[in-house]
Amino acid sequence: MQYNIFVSSAVFTAKSILRPIRRTRYYNADGTRASTVPQRVKKAPFITAAVIALLAIPLIVMNAVRTDPELAEWWTIHIAQGYTRFAGAFTSWLAISVYELLIIILVSLCVFLFVRLVINLSKKRFKAILNGALAMGAAAMVVLNLYMASMGFGYYRADMPLPQAGANYKGGQAAIAARYFVDDFNKLCDKLERDENGCVICPYDFRELSKLMEKEYSRLDDEYFFSYTPLAKPVLNSKLLSWLSITGITFLPIGEASVNTDVPPTTVTYTMAHEIAHTKGVQREGDANLISYYVLLSSENDYLRYCGYYATIYGFIRSVSLAGESEQYSEIYDSVSKKPNAEYKYADAYWEAQPDIIGELGEFFNNIYLVFNGASNGTGSYNNGNQSGVIKPVDPETGDPIIDPDTQKPVIIPVYSQVQKLYFALYEQKFGVPPIEVNKAIEKRARLARFSID
User: Fold this and answer.
1) Helix (H, G, I), strand (E, B) or coil at 11
2) Of 5, 292, 321, 362, which is most buried by a Cβ count within 10 Å?
């Protein structure tokens, strides 16, 4: 008997914890209190809250450990890469942007839920409001976990392998390389057709361009980069992205890169290169720019190479002036074709025409997102790798500039940006030797030619 009583009490206690009882008070018509009626509280809110708590655990753990570079590298290569390939295999079946489709569904759902919230508040349906909020919280936790697993670790990886050269180049060497690339750019400016706005016409439709970009990225054979390359998707409502000052979005939980097609044609191309870089495991914005420049500038395709020059050529030419070669810099700067000027002006006018308030809102949230992912300078991280300058050493005792004994001028040490050193590396890849040696080789061949003629 005592054993049965003990078991019954234990069962009753367990049921009370798992399904708590709420007692509701009722009143008779004459105002007297009626007997208390127990009602069972539904399990759903407690189960949903428990699910949210459980999903928060891996999210907190991943966010805490992803800052370790070795773990971030291992996770990105072994976990994120496999997940991206899996997700991209499904979303690639659709020609439209799945990300855009999900955003449309999310906005529609938010409108619906707002209307329901107003109705439930007016009718004091607080249980329904609680259940809805918990359900949305659980869904958000799932998305955040998928995001952290697929993209979150990539921001803390080791430095990206990128061809770099010319750290100690002098002004004359930089000038030789600059003249070569400016000549190539000028030839492309004369060769490619332009539209009525002065923009170079892209000779491919969006899908063809995406396939071409996939082929170009296949040249990256370092294991740092994902072997799988998904095709980029056009955003149908691109105008809205322009209002937010967004040219493209990569969302690896669905293994997809989406591009704003409302922007000028050349911008579409180098934005696509940038977004595909994210799908290759390069998450930091500055790194994505750098590797996209490399893919474009090293391409044998005239149009892609033009887009790379369009985005970077003037920044590279500045390398000539860093070592004090102002005359050569002016000469090379003035020699650049004037045909792209109309395209630059059109692009500037396009962005100036976008609503400032909405654009600032988009940049505000993007800045928060990047700071959360370790970029202390927020949206300024897009320019990481593009900073250059000079060092002017001084005598530690007198504070006077150190004078070069050969030129009798103050010593100036150029500090080239990663973009500039990328150009130098491309020059050396093409000719096999630094610019000054190529120049000497040409002079030697010319002397031998003259000797043979004599």
Assistant:
1) helix
2) 292
Whether 134 and 49 have beta carbons less than 8 Å apart is answered as yes
Alpha-carbon distance of 424 to 436, in angstroms, equals 12
d(CA 183, CA 336): 8
169/176 Cα distance (integer angstroms): 11
Angle at Cα 117 formed by Cα 112 and Cα 123, nearest 5°?
A: 130
In sequence order, what DSSP letters do the residues of 175-216 get, joined into one string?
HHHHHHHHHHHHHHHHHS-B-TTSPBPPSS-HHHHHHHHHHH
Q: How far apart are CA 268 and CA 201, in angstroms?
A: 11
Q: Tokens 């999900």 correspond to what residue?
A: 102
Q: Record the tokens describing residue 76, joined without a space.
A: 């990105």
Residue, of 405 and 322, whose pLDDT is higher = 322
Q: In this structure, how many other beta carbons lie within 10 angstroms of the beta carbon of residue 133?
A: 14
- CA Rg value for the chain: 31
What is the three-class DSSP state of 33?
strand
CB atoms within 10 A of CB 247: 22
Q: Are the beta carbons of 258 and 97 closer than 8 angstroms?
A: yes
Token couple for 164: 């770099």
Hey, what's the torsion of the CAs at 282, 286, 291, 293, to 10 degrees?
150
Q: Per-residue pLDDT tens for 387-434?
A: 888 888 887 878 778 887 777 778 888 899 999 999 999 999 998 888
Burial degree of 231 (CB within 10 A; 0-12, 13-18, 19+):
buried
What lies within 8 Å, CB to CB, of 231 at 6+ separation is: 92, 207, 210, 211, 214
β-strand partners of 21: 40
How much of the chain, in percent, has pLDDT values that exceed 70? 87
**Total-model pTM:** 0.84
Q: Do residues 365 and 214 make contact, with C-beta atoms less than 8 angstroms apart?
A: no
198 φ/ψ sector (left φ>0, alpha ψ -120 to 50, else beta): left
| Gap between the Cα atoms of 56 and 138, Å rounded | 9
Q: Report d(CA 454, CA 179) in Å as an integer.
A: 31
Task: Decide if 305 contacts 297 (C-beta within 8 A).
Answer: yes
CA pair distance 91, 102, nearest whole angstrom: 12
Range from 116-130, 221-235, 279-293, 439-453 carrying the lowest mean pLDDT: 439-453
